[in-house]
Structure formats: structure tokens, C-alpha cells
Amino acid sequence: MINNYFNSGTDMEIDSCDSPDLSEIKKDLDEIKKGINDVNKTILQKNLNENIIHYGIKCSNCLQLNFKGIRYKCFTCPDYNVCDKCEKMLSFFHDKNHFFLRIHDTFLYNCLSNKQ
């Protein structure tokens, strides 16, 4: 029994079992928690985006009025907006050199842009 804990009369443990380091386990658990939180945020944001209606906004491509989802507003053209579905084909029907602003909530965007 003594030989299980000591080697040749020294105070060194012989236990060669590779027991996991608790700090490594905690680090792994923290990474898993972060991953879960990121997934939850993504799901929540997706649900919020799908339920917000952009009242008074018409997609310049498909001409849908009051569409749901993310609104994309051209930063160069004064009144050019596209819906989430049309954004995927944007390079086919709009200047590729124009930047688009991604707007999740038109009401919030209007409140912020009117303050400037």
C-alpha cells in the first residue's frame, strides 16, 4: 500500500494516472458556455429580425411594401432599399461598388438618424 504513494522512500507520488487538470476543465466549460451564449444570441436576433416589419419601406427590387426581415439601404443612392431576400442577388441588379447599411429596425434607424 505504501508503494502506491511513495517510491523508494521518497515523498514523490507514483500515481501515474493522467487526471485532468481542473483549470483545463473549467476553461473548456467556459468555452462551451460562450458557444451556447453565442448560439442563443444568434437565434434571438434571427427571431427578432423575422418579426420586425419595415413599415412604409418598399423593396426597390421586388417592390414588396412593409417587408419583414433585415432592410438593406444603399449608402450612395438616396432612396434605394432592398429586402432580405433580394439582398442575396444584389450584385446582379445594383452597382457592386455601393455600400449598403444593414437595418434591423426602421423605427430605431429613423430615431437615430433624425438626431444627427
Automatic annotation (TrEMBL):
UniProt keyword annotation of Zinc present: yes
Secretion signal span: none
Entries under Pfam families matching the protein: ZZ (PF00569)
The protein, known as: ZZ-type domain-containing protein
GO biological process, one term: endosome organization
UniProt keyword Cell wall biogenesis/degradation present: no
Gene Ontology molecular function: K63-linked polyubiquitin modification-dependent protein binding; protein kinase C binding; zinc ion binding
ZZ-type domain mapped to chain residues: 54-108
Any one cellular-component term (Gene Ontology): aggresome
Keyword annotations of the record: Metal-binding, Zinc, Zinc-finger
Species the sequence originates in: seawater metagenome
Upper classification of the organism: unclassified sequences, metagenomes, ecological metagenomes
InterPro entries in the record: Autophagy_Rcpt_SigReg (IPR052260), Znf_ZZ (IPR000433), Znf_ZZ_sf (IPR043145)
